[in-house]
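Q: I have 447 residues here and want to know how they pack in 3D. Can you give me a structure?
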Amino acid sequence: MAVLVTKKISVITTFHNVESYLRQAIESVINQEYTNWELVLWDDGSTDGSEAIAREFLVKYPEKIYLAKDNTNIGRGNALYEAIEVSTGEVFCILDADDCLGKKALSLVNKVFAENPNAGWLYTNYTECDKDGNQLRVGTKNNLVYSRLNELHTMCCFHLRAIRKDFYEKTPKVDRTLTAAVDHDLNLKLSEQGKPIHVKKAVYKYRLHENRISVEKKKEQGKTFVACSMAAINRRGWQDKYYLSHTDDYSSIQLCEKKYLRDPMPSKVFCIGLGRTGTRSLLRAMGLLGYNTLQHPRDLNVIQYFDAASDVLIAANYQELDKTYSNSKFILTVRDIPSWLDSWEQHDQRAQEKFNNNLPQWVKDFRIRLYGQWEFERNIWKEKYKKHEKEVSNYFSEVRSKLLVLNVVRGENWKKLVVFLSHNATMPLSVKETELLIQNKFPNIKN
């Protein structure tokens, strides 16, 4: 059955020194079953054989391919901006020069826009391949849930992205000054004009290799990613609502709600127990009591916006937090050590399976911060548990009123917690509201 050609699709490919992969990328466009396309190639100052490869195809398909070149490497933002400007299709999609399109990619794009004439943009699923093009697995981002909030801290809309040109014209367009996080910035701007369609078919082949910019310039990419997200927060007037917390190397980014309608309480509460001791259950209870809570902050600066926080940075920096927030209270969650080690072992197995035995660097860094290494070992974890509990006890030995030791797993919960929190402090809920709340079962979050 013939494909109904309704829109001209411009495939945009910018490149800089990718001679190893560019030929395959171009051929994947030429081999499309959909024929109403143009390929816009923008050479961002390549010094290898990339330009020669592009010109070879330009000679063969002069009516289908447009080629332009910057004499110096200005940057991805400028190249993508210029390439989109010269494109003539009603729709454009972005193909990275080291990736490939599936044969039916443009047919799918055309079909979705034909069936959804009011849609402004879409993104598809993808597969991950090794440097030689051999398929490794389904895309790790395929199941991310898109929302305007999620897009601020995670790039939910990945490959392939296709955008109606007139829809794009309503945005501030690509920032031509950016050299990193260009696609993330564009996604944020597009999302401010309308929600994308997620097409759950894999028609894009994403190549994993050591020279991708996201790997080669990881910290720069992360820093620019955060800057673009903060710019979007300001454009949307959300600066009093949200804050982006991140690790020092920007490998992990977290969107935090400031609870902008209420200033943080003067006396903060920090859960300084190690992971798998009931920290999530405790923080959930704190939230029910009216505290503005934060789990697993990526940096200490974000704590200023919250009433209570828990997890690695909190447990590792409780002495600094005590000095910074001198009126605060601390809760050490504890657990029977054999049970704790069993829970950690199961948690580690699930984490390894989730990340295909390749834990993200930020996870490794956080484990190293507390345990001295990222690989789980029962003996090392056991000694760290005993050392942490002893150090906390010694530190608060002269101010016992600031510390509560709580065994959530064993069932020590509401009464002990509320008595501790209410001592010399004003709680968020009224006495009556608190009494009604603690008649309910204490949260028991298992993961």
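Q: Anything worth noting?
A: The chain has two domains: 9-232, 242-337+365-437. The chain has a mean pLDDT of 90.
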